[in-house]
Amino acid sequence: MNSKRVEVELGARSYPIFISEDFQLENFEQTIGQRRFYVITDSHVAPLYGDQLSVLPNRLGQSIVPAGESSKSLQQAEIIYGDLIRAKADRKTVIVALGGGVVGDLAGFIASTYMRGVPFVQMPTSLLAMVDSSVGGKVAVNHPLGKNMIGHFYQPESVLMATSVLKTLPQRELQAGMAEVIKYGIIMDAEFFAWLEQNVEKLLALDPQAIASTLEKSVCCKAQVVGEDEKEGGVRATLNLGHTFGHAEEVLAGYGRVLHGEAVAAGMVAAMATSVALGQASEDDLRRCRALILKFKLPITLTQSHRQTEFWTAMEGDKKSLSGVVNFVLSRGIGGCDLPKAIQRTFIENVLTSLR
Ligand code: GLY
């Protein structure tokens, strides 16, 4: 498979995304140059892929955090600031995030704050991180009272992804990552959605060509949106299709029990059903969304009771909600969508009841 390259166009902060079968060290070395680099990874990924970078002479050191969402904390960041200071990392040291979304968000947050900001490179190893979180510069840690509450927009210098690493990803996480892929089809690319409908089996079997095309298409969509609206003043908010519902599902089920992609999948069906109820998408759009999500073995209904006050309170707590008004990204039919808009609670509750 030839290596593919997609650009995120952000003026002086533009950067390339490289997609290849295995991590290509020449792309890595081209980005890093003569500078030293420091790797942040986790306890699942380090034994699998940590060695790939340890062969390079300018590696300054490595911090390995426990795998899982609990590592995305200020306490963990503080431990790593100590590691960096002891390793004598300076302003030119490049932080390398080698791992899934937790590692990418944590390492990016550390890069954005250590010595007032040092360069960083993303090497995502989960499908979700490849198609979404490693691109676009959202970096954050969680606060006990809310997810991603402390963070920045801080762009990497480059993103390097290797399709072969998906072979070691648990099937459930692969399926969950597909939710964010399907999202791009729903919000902005009907042709891609139709292509996904035809290629489910190949994708679940990790066919290298199908996976590479999916990654390329997904990061092209993300790069286009981020290039237009880096700081989410407008169109970037459409990347949150299904996320208002999904956020409430995740909060109430307990983080980790329902994977982010699973919650988003059920949330996208809820968003599409709301769009149909408002007359701006068709029953056939809803049928196709449900069918595709089911084919990837993802949930199509929310498990949490939407009639409880906690469900609405959790949606109000979502960062996309402003002044207590809950905003939803709604579809205009597969391939198009609106900016988030407020919808009445009773309307949403009736739609969710109809989906049960
Ligand atoms: N995950 C949505 C965004 O990056 O804006």
Highlighted features:
two-stranded antiparallel sheet, 46% helix, 14 helices, 356 residues, binds glycine, 11 strands, globular, alpha/beta, seven-stranded mixed β-sheet
Q: What's the helix and strand layout?
A:
Blueprint: E1 4-8, E2 15-20, H1 25-32, E3 37-42, H2 45-54, E4 59-65, H3 74-86, E5 94-99, H4 101-113, E6 120-124, H5 127-133, E7 138-143, E8 146-153, E9 158-162, H6 171-188, H7 190-198, H8 200-204, H9 208-228, H10 243-253, H11 260-277, H12 283-295, H13 309-316, E10 327-328, E11 341-342, H14 345-354
Helix pairs in contact: 3-4, 5-6, 5-9, 6-7, 6-11, 10-11, 10-13, 11-12, 11-14
Bound molecules: glycine (GLY).
Residues 132, 136, 138, 236, 239 line the site of glycine.
Structure description:
With 356 residues, this protein is an alpha/beta fold. The protein is built from 14 helices and eleven strands. It has helices at 25-32, 45-54, 74-86, 101-113, 127-133, 171-188, 190-198, 200-204, 208-228, 243-253, 260-277, 283-295, 309-316, 345-354; strands at 4-8, 15-20, 37-42, 59-65, 94-99, 120-124, 138-143, 146-153, 158-162, 327-328, 341-342. The strands form three sheets. It has a seven-stranded mixed sheet with strand order 1-2-9-6-5-3-4, with helices on both faces.
